Amino acid sequence: MVEYRIDRRSGVATYVQIVQQTKQALRLGLLEPGDKLPTAREVVEATAINPNTVLKAYRELEREGLVEARRGLGTFVRKSLGARPVDSPLRAELAAWTLRAKETGLERGDVEALFTAALDEHFTADQGDGA
Fold first, then answer.
1. Pick from 109, 110, 117: nearest CA to 10
2. Cα–Cα distance for residue pair 61/92, rounded to 1 Å
3. Which of 12, 18, 48, 103 lies closest to 2 in space, CA to CA?
4. Most exposed of 15, 39, 44, 93 (fewest Cβ within 10 Å)?
5. Cα separation of 70 and 121, whole Å?
6. Burial of 37 (0-12, 13-18, 19+ CB in 10 A)
7. Within 10 A of 75 (CB to CB), how many other CB atoms are there?
8. CATH code of the domain occupying 14-77
9. Following DSSP, what letter does each residue of 13-69 receive, concatenated?
10. pLDDT tens sequence across 42-82
11. Which DSSP letter does residue 126 get?
12. Does residue 130 surpass a pLDDT of 80?
């Protein structure tokens, strides 16, 4: 089951953080079709956010066709997002790189900036597939 981490200082709306983290879990294969998302109550207890915020995020995911609410049962994953195994060699390489970056004294924001710059360089909007 996914555990949401809310960063109140990020400037990103809380419900958007839930949507993004759910999509990330789908991409990494941590969530698969049929898996149940935590209930709104469970998310509220773990993160101290408003239940309506959780419900708004789940409605957005449902609108995108990624999850479905089953009355009285909960919210379930409908489809994956090209899931990649958590133990992918690329993930291991990235983990090693981020560890090296941390060991050299870079802060999380520095690493995010470097990674975003690399993404922007190789995955521009006009390329479509990133080729």
1. 109
2. 29
3. 18
4. 93
5. 42
6. buried
7. 23
8. 1.10.10.10
9. -HHHHHHHHHHHHHHHTSS-TTPBPPPHHHHHHHH---HHHHHHHHHHHHHTTSEEE
10. 999 999 999 999 999 999 999 999 999 999 999 999 988 87
11. G
12. no
Start and end residues for every CATH 1.10.10.10 domain found in the chain: 14-77
Place of tokens 């994953």: 77
**Diameter of the chain measured on Cα atoms:** 50
pLDDT number for residue 30: 87
Closest CA to 62 of 72, 70, 73: 70
* CA distances in angstroms from 46 to 11, 15, 43, 67, 100, listed in the order given: 20, 15, 5, 21, 31
What SS3 class is residue 47?
helix
Q: Which residue has the tokens 């060699």?
A: 89
Residue type, 119: L
Burial (CB count <10 Å: 0-12, 13-18, 19+), residue 23: middle
